[in-house]
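When time allows, look over one protein, given below as sequence and tokens. The question is which stretches look regular and which look disordered:
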Amino acid sequence: MPMSRMKRVFAAIGAYAAHTDPRAAIANTVALVIVSNQPFYPLYLYWAVSPVVTPSYLTFLSTPFFAAVPAVMRRSAVLGRSLLLVAGIGNTLLCRAAFGPGSGVEVFLFPCLMLAMMLFRRSERAVALGFAALAFAAYLLPAAILGAPIHLYGPDEYAALQRLNFLSAASLTALIGWLFVGRPDTNSRADETDGAAGA
């Protein structure tokens, strides 16, 4: 792809993720980073765990929801941020059903909890607490309710899958923290008022 075309593509992605509300802009960035990484998850699984990558294909069911976050955000910042969390918690449950409880995929609930606590203003704390409770409920959901996994991996493969999921979730959590550190205006007095832009 020529450099000028790549620049136009990145500029279009940047414009799609942009928002006047700093929390909304962070949520958009996180959603699009997840979208850009999802196609590589089967490859990571193949390289690090097992040639059997069929369960990972279910993760693509959540891709349209993550990709739609910036579009929904333009209509309502609260709905857009909520969609990101619904997609994140839903995708984690989907992966848990696909891979089984031994996969350690529940670790992705930690970035969901972090987002729930940081994406919403004081006036929206009920929404934040609701999503935090939903993340805890997803973790506590009995494995029997989700049914048998698509494929049973061996003990060494499950250990490798747990490492892969931990590294992925830890990287996502670190990215979220970095984005918030880079936007100190998310904690400004003006941003905490009901009349802040994008509310």
